[in-house]
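ok so for the tutorial part 2 we go from a plain amino acid sequence to predicted structure tokens. step 1 is just haveing the sequence, like this:
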Amino acid sequence: LLLLTAALGATAAARCPAPCVCDNLRAHVMCLNGSLMAIPDTIPELTKKLDLRGNSFMVIPAGAFLATPYLTHLDLQRCKVERLEEGAFRGLGRLVYLNLASNSIALLYQESLDGLFSLQQLILEGNRIEEIQLGAFGHLGSLTVLDLRANALVYLPDLVFQGLQVLRWLRLSHNALHVLGSEAFAALPALRRLSLDHNELQALPGEALARLGGATRLDLGHNPITYVAEEALAMASLRHLFLDHASLQDVAPDAFARSPQLRVLDLRENQLQGLPPLAGAGGLARVSLDGNPLLCSCLLRPFHKWLARARVQAEGACAAPPALRGRSLDSLKPPEMRCGRLRPPSSPTTLPDQPRAAGSRQCPRGCVCSPDFQHGSCENRDLQEIPRDFPGDTRLLDLRRNPFRTVPPDAFPGLKELVSLHLQSCSIRALHPGALRGLESLVYLYLTDNHLSTLAAAAFEGAPQLAYLDLDHNAFTHVPAGAFRLLPNLISLHLQHNAIGELAEGDLAGARGLHWLYLAGNAIRHIAPAALAPTKMLEKLQLEGNHLSEVPTAALWGLPALSELKLSRNPIKHMGDSVFLPVASSLQHLYLDNMGLEWISPHAFTGLGPKIRSLYLESNKMSNIPNMSNFTGLEILNLQDVPFHCDCELLPLRRWINKLNLRVGATCGSPAEARGLKVKLSTTFLTCPGWGRGKAGETNPNKTKAASKPSKKKRSGKSPARGFSKSRA
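step 2 — the prediction. this is what the tokens look like for a chain of 729 residues:
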């Protein structure tokens, strides 16, 4: 036996690749800091831990580790990896730990991580990831930790983390996140900790965070958030909230009223001069205010009184008035907090009762300028004209809720570094030619809730980097034709909740880089065949809540990248043949719900198939739907509130639903004896010809509930809050 063991050990040693070290006793192979250009193909088959740090692979090809199926740990840090080919890790069904940190990966494809169904930790820190394709994590049903720190993410689309059913900690720190889809986190039911610190979030992403009902810790520190609004955070289980080192100037009294479990609130190093009584945060035990310019005057008494009454521990010290400077909050007595003749500081670096020092940073009177974050704010100051003389290095300028009414030419001189401009709710009726001249770094422009009804292209002269333009809730009756021809980098255009009646040819001229177009809540009745022709890179088209009476098929030609189409809440009663054929090769998410749809042609979905991930047909009036047996990639199918006629013609649909590992909500509307029953459980099919043939795996409606328990088989993918889970119907 000893001789045989020695012989086997010698054989294993002989198979160890030359630049590597093999520990056969622990089934551990290390090939560190070498010049390997490809994954060695002579690694012992029984290897469990493989450490390849510091090599130069560039690309991980499909099936790269098929020869080592017993791997549980794989380390590929600092390997100059730029691309993971689809199927790169196929065959590693036992892998629980994968480290790809400090590489140069820029894009995660749908099948890049295919086959890793046992993976528990995935480390992608320190790459160049700008985009995550929907479905990239769809096969990682066992993942508990996902580390995406220090990448180049700017935007998180809806359902981007779909499939991560047991994920506990999502780390997104040190990216450039500015926009989060409202359902970006909808598919994370087990998440307990979310790290979003060190990003570019300018407001609390309340709608997206509301999907995280089980999360207990949220880190939003080091983001340029200036204000926490009323009931901004609705997280039922949240206990620890970190908003430190942001740009907070105010917090609403009931900001946390919908997070009743909140215990610890960290507001260190902000620009808060005080806080109101946080009456809504009934369970709060500690609030940290160190590093804020607290003004301990009579204005702080209500908060101070609330701290004592609610028995909340507060950490922080007074910055003014001079007599109280340095005093801790818990040492103050109400009579000491007087109001005298204090005047508000003109900037965070200028304390009350002190003149501005010579040579200090310029800032318009009545505004606040932060030197640390290069932010300026004059929000809600009742200003009639746009102020000037902001510091030249200002990157974010918040001018919301001032009655400017107009933006004149050259309104923002000397702000060549400005990236984000907020002009929401300013009663603006005109954006004059040259209004943005000189804003050569501007990326984000928010003009929501104004009175704009027209725009000239010349208004955007001098702002060629503009990528995100928000014109929601204005008075447009048509898309301002040609207005975007000076914006070659425009990615996202919001024109929701206006009064637009049609989309005409030429309206989007020049918007050749547009990826996302939001037109929900208008009055659009017609879309010209060539209206969308300039937007050949369009990925998302949202048309819900308009007046379309038919699918705009002709307008969809020439959109090879369109992956999401929303037609919900349009009065489309009939759907003819091949209506989605122009986008059949790219479409993944299709919303046809709440339309009053009465009839769908058997050939309506011609061309659609395995690429479709989600299909919403709920709350319509049809009694049958086309054959969708080739929709093999479905992760979400919503058929709730559709009055299916459960006769023998519906038998193919019933059989197909029975095979799906989806909860679809399909119920019978007729005949009378089946009304209200699930299609799967209706007994009306028992008399149909062919019912007894090919019934392997069929659910017999007469069997007991115990016999029809939900399947425990795991699949990839996850439904959003509005959809259905992947358990059995």
